[in-house]
Specification:
With about 750 residues, the chain is an alpha/beta fold. It has 29 helices and 21 strands. Strands 11-12-10-13-14-9-15 form a seven-stranded parallel sheet, with helices on both faces. Strands 16-21-20-17-19-18 form a six-stranded parallel sheet, sandwiched between helices. Helix 9 (about 220-255) crosses helix 27 (about 695-715) and helix 16 (about 450-455) packs across helix 27 (about 695-715).
């Protein structure tokens, strides 16, 4: 990050290397560390304490201990093993005593030579390691040791109390080797250029950067670690927020066409036909969006909201406002199923207002066009012509909208649905189709904690819809432990039957499709699942085709059961959804293809099979498909995971709350930030090493505020060369592109 010539020095050079060439090669290939600065910013993951001195009589199991004792006995044994079949394997057994008890130490293989020479009977030393049991006896395997010469009480205290840094390592390079390499380059830390403005650093009582680097790698006390981490967290938060603040500042300088709806135009006609009033939240968010659209700079807004909070309606009103003002609006959906559903629901909501240029269309009507990759040639040609001439005011489509052939007459607004499924490059390509940068509205149905929104989507202003429209029913959620209590699963199918008998419909969701080309069926891939010791994790996840067959012949015999999954032909998928929406199907067995956008108010029950195979946010998203009408919703989370497992605790958390923001926090705490800030979101690896976006909410919020003040006063950072250098290091080429594309 804070690179100056000494820190920019490559770890590996043709003529001379800072480290050995083999070590430097492994660091580059396996850890992405290329320069002295990279290595200095490879912080310890945690610190091991050699522990308070422990008497041999009181040794705790499975804990790291440090003991001072005398060698009573040392014996070298030879043995045969698969690696050394000729009996050339070596094991050194050393017995030590401190007067209160005895303990065995063991060393194997090449690790026996040094201790065999050092640990002679009568030698006094300190030993540190993890206590384990072998043949019913306590032992330390391969302990670290330090020989004590003379009395050395002071040496004992110093050595036992020291903190050993443990680094994120790889099989090819152990933590202690990384520690030695860090020791080699640590003097260069003195030359680290500080990215924080002096006033900010001093005002917040933060360590200078060289001192922070020294203390994170070689702490004398726990207070050193805390002070170093506090300083380095500020670096990460502040540099990232400055990058985002500069992006927002640059956006504010771009030109855009202001789009103001006409007083008695399409939007007014649409609002007059709504059979309900907008919630306060919808009205407030709409005001924010309309204010942005009325400016001559492009809107960049993130619209996030609870499942079913009415985001699509808010987005549609924004699109109609732009059409009113003479422009076109494009809604980009991540899948064909979702694009088709959006098209269907938008045309249904608009009625004859979506029939512009057609017989029966009203005075203010516009044309709403669908554009997907699987459309026939004639329909596609017609859609492209409607876009190019401006006949179509609203277009809904998938990535097919981005292709070079697609030309808009006057693109004024781009709405991107389900941001996290859509690449930055794709979003950028669509925005590039306007004569001037169009306004941008990003919708996500996965509630994002405030700090994540500030960190991941920091270049977007955020609007939140957290109020459900009137008439939405509560959803009861329960965990069904199929392995512990099989009769609970039988009862779940009875509940589905009861819902159908009451005139309602149900979903059954499975993690995979279930045919030979389904990759989850590959036993090797299935074996890579989380905790292999759990039987529930060892079998492949349940599949739509198998479950549908079992239900139709068994527990749900006599009901109209259909399947829906992503590998079906788009027309077939659409036909299945239409039958389900019309009430011609009782139970829809599907993959997560129904996760977003599906709106069937008559569907009241959902059974999620192998629920432990889904993420927290995804379960919440799926659950939002029921309870969309006046009847209460029911969601049953079926799992075979044992009660004490982390997976069950996760499911219990989902069952316990309907608050998506609370669940997203839980999800994030379990997944860690790397997933959130990693490639899925930004197109670049996470730059965060010590900053934790949930725990460090205060730091991020304050860093954002400081960054905005600083960038407004000095957009080019002329006064802060150290900060500019840090930005250059943060914004490698990939990340630079990500921020450029916003």
């Amino acid at each position: 990050m804070d690179l100056v010539p000494a820190l920019e020095e490559p770890l590996k050079q043709p003529l001379k290397s800072v480290l050995g060439p083999a070590t430097a090669k492994v660091m580059a290939e396996h850890l992405g560390l290329h320069t002295v600065g990279d290595l200095l910013h490879h912080y310890p993951r945690r610190y091991e304490e050699r522990g308070q001195l422990t008497h041999l009589a009181d040794l705790p199991m499975d804990e790291h201990v440090t003991v001072v004792a005398q060698v009573a006995d040392a014996r070298l044994h030879s043995f045969a093993s698969s690696r050394t079949p000729r009996g050339k394997g070596q094991r050194l057994e050393v017995t030590i005593t401190d007067g209160s008890g005895r303990l065995q130490l063991v060393f194997f293989g090449n690790g026996v030579h040094k201790p065999h020479k050092d640990l002679l009977p009568g030698t006094r030393a300190m030993f540190a390691g993890k206590v384990s049991v072998f043949n019913h006896r306590l032992q330390l395997a391969h302990p670290a040791y330090e020989l004590l010469r003379g009395d050395g009480e002071e040496a004992v205290e110093t050595w036992a109390g020291s903190l050993i840094p443990l680094y994120p390592a790889t099989a090819k390079l152990e933590s202690w080797k990384i520690g030695k390499a860090v020791q080699t380059v640590l003097p260069a830390a003195q030359e680290a250029l500080d990215p924080l403005p002096p006033a900010l650093r001093e005002g917040r009582g933060l360590l200078p950067l060289p001192e922070a680097l020294l203390k994170i790698h070689r702490p004398a006390t726990k207070a050193d670690i805390a002070a170093a981490r506090a300083r380095l967290k500020w670096d990460e938060a502040f540099v990232l927020q400055v990058a985002l603040a500069r992006r927002r500042y640059a956006d504010a300088q771009l030109p855009a066409v202001a789009r103001r709806p006409r007083a008695d135009g399409l939007l007014t006609a649409f609002d007059d036909r709504l059979p309900f009033t907008l919630t306060e939240g919808q009205q407030k968010v709409s005001r924010e969006i309309f204010a942005d659209l009325a400016t001559e700079h492009p809107m960049h807004r993130l619209l996030q909201g609870e499942v079913g909070s009415g985001k699509t309606l808010v987005a549609l009103r924004a699109m109609l406002a732009v059409v009113d003002a003479g422009g076109q609006a494009a809604l980009l959906a991540p899948t064909e199923v979702l694009a088709q559903q959006h098209h269907r629901s938008v045309t249904e909501m608009m009625g004859d207002l979506a029939e512009g240029g057609m017989l029966g269309g009203t005075e203010h009507a516009t044309k709403v066009v669908l554009l997907t990759g699987s459309m026939g040639a004639a329909a596609r040609r017609k859609a492209l012509l409607d876009l190019a001439t401006g006949e179509a005011g609203v277009v809904i489509g998938t990535h097919a909208l981005i292709e070079d052939k697609v030309q808009f007459h006057d693109l004024g607004l781009v709405v991107v649905d389900e941001q996290h499924r859509f690449g930055v490059e794709q979003r950028d390509a669509l925005r590039g189709k306007g004569k001037q940068p169009p306004h941008l509205l990003v919708m996500t149905a996965t509630p994002i904690p405030r700090t994540v929104a500030m960190t991941v989507f920091g270049d977007l202003e955020t609007s939140v819809l957290d109020q459900l429209p009137a008439g939405r029913s509560p959803i009861a959620s329960h965990v069904v432990p199929a392995a512990d209590k099989p009769h609970f699963l039988a009862r779940a199918w009875e509940r589905v039957r009861e819902e159908v008998e009451n005139g309602h419909q149900a979903y059954v969701v499975c993690p995979r499709i279930g045919d030979d080309i389904d990759e989850a069926a590959d036993p090797k891939k299935a074996a890579k699942k989380k905790s292999a010791e759990d039987e529930a994790e060892k079998r492949p996840p349940l599949a739509v085709l198998d479950v549908a067959d079992h239900l139709a012949k068994g527990p749900l015999q006599g009901l109209r059961v259909e399947v829906l999954h992503g590998r079906m032909h788009p027309d077939d998928k659409d036909a299945v959804m239409r039958r389900f929406a019309a009430g011609d199907t009782d139970v829809l067995v599907a993959t997560t293809v129904i996760e977003v956008g599906v709106n069937v108010p008559n569907a009241t029950a959902m059974v999620i099979m192998d629920a432990d195979r889904f993420g927290v946010s995804q379960l919440h998203q799926l659950r939002g498909r029921v309870g969309r009408g006046s009847a209460p919703g029911l969601c049953l989370l079926v799992t075979e995971m044992p009660e004490a497992s982390a997976a069950r605790q996760r499911l219990n958390a989902v069952a316990a709350t309907l608050d998506g923001f609370e669940l997203s926090r839980i999800d994030l705490e379990q997944r860690r930030e790397g997933d959130v800030l990693g490639q899925a979101q930004s197109g670049a690896r996470s730059s965060l090493r010590v900053l934790e976006v949930i725990e460090d909410e205060e730091v991020i919020a304050e860093a954002r505020s400081e960054a905005m003040t600083l960038v407004t006063a000095d957009p080019d950072l002329d006064q802060l060369p150290g900060l500019r250098t840090a930005l250059d290091a943060l914004l490698d080429e990939e990340r630079e592109q990500y921020l450029e594309k916003g």
